[in-house]
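ARCHIVE CARD
Drawer: 12
Card no.: 0347
Subject: one protein chain, sequence and derived structure
Cross-reference: see card 0346
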Amino acid sequence: MKDLQILEDHVANLGRAIDFIEQNIDRPFSLKELARKARMSQWHFQRVFHALIGEPVKSYVRRRRLSNVAKLLIDSSASLAGLAGMAGFKSTEAFSRAFKLQFGVNPGAFRDAGEPPLVPVARARIDKEYIASMFSQTKPPEVTVVELPSKQLYGIRRRFYSCFSETPNGPEVTPLFWKELVTAVAGHPEVSPQSYWGLISKASDAEEDDGVFDYLASFETAALPATVQAQLANDFVTADFPGGLYALFEQVNPPKGVIPNLNYLFCIWLGKTGYVLDDRTEVEIYGPEYTLEDPRGSFKYGIPLKK
């Protein structure tokens, strides 16, 4: 399938999801329902939506709901509590804070003004020309499909807010995770890591659209005596990476440059190859000599696939 046809399909798929949001703006609905309208898995839908619309699904829906109730503040006598519930908030306090953040004034002042001091945020409008321009300057990465073997890893597991969250902090905190791991490994001179692995997975106890992820900063080592293995198991999280089918590409520093490459894979490469994005762990693979400070440093990034 050619790139333009893939982009046209995304326009149609996202258009159905956006229409569904508008038609159901005053009632609860799930991420699963939106993904179904877009004919994608939930995970793929979140990726494509964020790449092409420019913000998380949850953030977009919240903005549209606040815009809807902004009109109702002027055009109806509905109570603030009722409007807060319609916008998906559990309290008028939370509703008022979010409303002021978006419109610059609290709901009461907005209503008292008699006319909107700001134009409510409009629904997203996308077309194939707009999307094509997003990728016109992107040099596609060289992608290799491989079957990664299973591995036993030792590391530290921490949590971060991904780009699907309204308060993302991944680029700021993940280097701290690695610094913590390297410091801990230095306390085990008997260990020589063969490679380092970053495992990224959705937090199992988080809401489906909160964007909270678990990050395992870990290392692989050669076979060790049982006494050393026991000590590592005591000082680190022991993780069994199950392996599986992955699309790998090389990413040169800085790590934040991975975003346009991932957007290309999620929005175009998957459609061209016929592979389907799986919801298993994403991986970062670093050589033992990798450093963030080296401008020529590189690592491998992998997204999980299924046929």
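Annotation on reverse: Residues 3-113 form a domain with the Arc Repressor Mutant, subunit A fold (CATH 1.10.10.60). The chain has two domains: 3-113, 144-306.
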